[in-house]
Specification:
Blueprint (H helix, E strand, L loop, with lengths): L1 H11 L4 H12 L2 E4 L1 E2 L10 E2 L22 E4 L6 H7 L9 H7 L3 H5 L7 H8 L16 E7 L2 E7 L3 H22 L17 E4 L10 H5 L3 E4 L19 H4 L7 H11 L6 H28 L14 H7 L4 H6 L2 H20 L10 H17 L8
Antiparallel strand pairs: 1-4, 2-3, 5-6, 7-8
Helix pairs in contact: 1-2, 2-3, 2-6, 10-11, 11-15, 12-14, 14-15
Length: 390
């Protein structure tokens, strides 16, 4: 494959194969493998660094040494050097690239191109010059700088973007997108399977119409990189109002249950009457009850036991027993409070649902009330045991 590739590329340029190969070997000296390329920050910066990944890769931190991804190739000699880079990255029969073979087999070119009258060792040495590690001797004022404290002084460090990690991220994003496409395609064998979805991605472009001027992998990715969102989460203040007279009217805010109630009303309005619809209605009722129960656990865990014994607290005794952790033992030994709570809870559920229906509301009868109260009572009984965290 290597011989055929060289012959094809040489013919396209109207050159002899050995002449074309010799030219690419010289151009390879103007390129260098790198994991950090300054041109991703500014297109005129030639500062690069190559981390050979010879450190421990067992840690969980995302670093150039721990993430297994391909090294990029910085092209400092212009677009004329791109054929040399493509030659080095060309995959052969075993899936390994020409560069990988050159690095592991000292006689690779001699074996592949032995009959060609060329200096195989010299050309192989020139091609491998891209892997020489060039530690930058100076930075560039167009790169980001940071003073970092070391011992009793500060060191001025240059922040170089890791193109290898960034381009590997782009590759993985594309893989995730492809998995999602297949899972949504009814004609694909993977249809219906679960898949990851990355939201709020930002896409950045490097190199404009000439992505090859930045690096080889940048050209391979079309000059585009995906950036994961890096913003603080939006936190909403959670505040459970402490009831003074009635838990259901003061603590449970009806607007928080609007969507659940509307979905339940939709099931009640179904003309059909079969087992599946009744099961769905029961599940929706149970979800609504469970959601309305959460403030109970929050009050118990966030307030000091005995808060309901305040002189300004006029809660019914059953609600005090239910909500205040000072009555934990009473809840377990005396269950008389459960029926009163279940009735009040069921009445609140029915009134809340009806309040979102307007004039065309569905009013449930006594039988429906008792059936719903039975579910509520079971949930209330579960709250009478040990303290549960929200």
């Amino acid at each position: 494959m290597l011989k055929e590739y060289i012959q094809t590329q040489a013919a396209a340029k109207h050159k002899k194969p050995k002449e074309w190969l010799f030219q690419q070997a010289r151009n390879a000296q103007k390129c260098s493998c790198a994991t950090h390329i300054g041109r991703f920050t500014h297109p005129s910066v030639n500062v690069t660094y190559y981390d050979k990944k010879d450190t421990d890769t067992s840690d969980d931190y995302v670093t150039t040494s721990s993430v297994h991804c391909s090294a990029d190739i910085a092209i400092t000699g212009g677009a004329a050097c791109m054929p040399a880079v493509k030659l080095l990255q060309y995959p052969l029969e075993d899936g390994r690239t020409v560069l990988e073979h050159l690095q592991s087999e000292p006689d690779f070119l001699q074996r592949e191109l032995g009959e060609w009258p060329i200096d195989h060792m010299a050309i192989q040495k020139d091609l491998l010059s891209v892997t020489l590690q060039h530690v930058p001797t100076a930075s560039d004022n167009r790169l980001r700088q940071v003073y970092f404290p070391v011992a009793d002084s500060y060191h001025l460090l240059t922040v170089l973007p890791s193109s290898s990690v960034a381009l590997e991220l782009r590759r993985r994003v594309r893989v995730a997108e492809e998995e999602g496409r297949k899972a949504r395609d009814s004609k694909d064998p993977a249809y219906g399977t679960s898949y990851p979805q990355l939201l709020d991605l930002t896409e950045m472009s490097f190199g404009g119409t000439k992505p090859q001027n930045i690096s080889y992998l940048n050209l391979q990715r079309g000059g585009r990189l995906s950036v994961l969102p890096s913003v603080p989460p939006v936190l909403h203040l959670r505040h459970v109002k402490v009831p003074r007279r009635d838990f259901f009217r003061e603590t449970l805010q009806r607007w928080q249950y609007r969507e659940d109630c509307e979905r339940l009303s939709k099931l009640y309005r179904e003309v059909r009457n079969n087992m599946e619809l009744r099961r769905r209605a029961r599940r929706r009722e149970q979800l609504l009850i469970a959601k309305a129960m959460l403030p109970v656990y929050q009050l118990r865990s966030s307030l000091e036991p005995g808060w309901s014994q305040d002189g300004q607290c006029a809660l019914p005794q059953a609600q005090k027993v239910w909500l205040d952790e000072v009555y934990a033992e009473t809840r377990r030994q005396d269950i008389s409070w459960q029926t009163e709570i279940a009735k009040a809870f069921t009445r609140w559920l029915m009134q809340t649902r009806e309040s979102f229906e307007g004039h065309d509301k569905i009013v449930l009868g006594n039988a429906e009330f008792l059936a719903l109260q039975k579910q509520v009572l079971q949930a209330v009984q579960e709250t009478g045991g040990m303290v549960q965290e929200p």
